[in-house]
Amino acid sequence: VLLLKIRATRSCRGISLKTQELYALVFICRYLDLFYSYISLYNTVMKVTYLATAFSIVRYMRFDKVVRQTYDKEQDTFRYIFLIAPCALLALVLNHRFSPTEVLWTFSIYLEAVAILPQLVLMQRTQNIDNLTANYVALLGAYRGFYILNWIYRFATEKHYRQWIVWISGVAQTALYADFFYYYALCWKANQRLQLPA
Amino acid sequence: QGPAGSHDEL
Hints:
The structure holds two protein chains of two kinds. Chain A is an all-alpha fold. Helix content of chain A is 68%, strand content 0%.
């Protein structure tokens, strides 16, 4: 959806580069297992797709002659360090196994949960949020939200399915969107363009 | 599949 917006409108107005770069980092740290484990063709294809789209978006926003001029750097002020440092620290302390790949994987889980924050802050500052941006954020929130249903199903049907780090992070991630979803639903019902209160 | 085994979700 986001690539569609950027390519079709030749603009990344209202999109946080910080959030996009955090997602690229999340996928790098999480999908290192592409090199040493195979789950299914679907799983591999999706991992490669996420990496490719994340890097493509960052490339457009940073280097495309037209698109980069529509990036509002002054408004996108969230500091990386405030998200990366606590997640890194937490991953070092709270993990299933203290190995490099496992700690990086855990870090990616924590970081993904909060990676939307720069985007949410930027949207609060944006007067006219375009529909594609609003829909993109809604879909991103719904994506992890729907996992919760899948986790409940798997917990009930699979014997050794215990993933508390993933569950807590996923629920926290979804909760961060609660406020956004509330206003998204209100505006959708009223058939109005999304506006977030300051 | 244990908790620290293969992570089969995306």
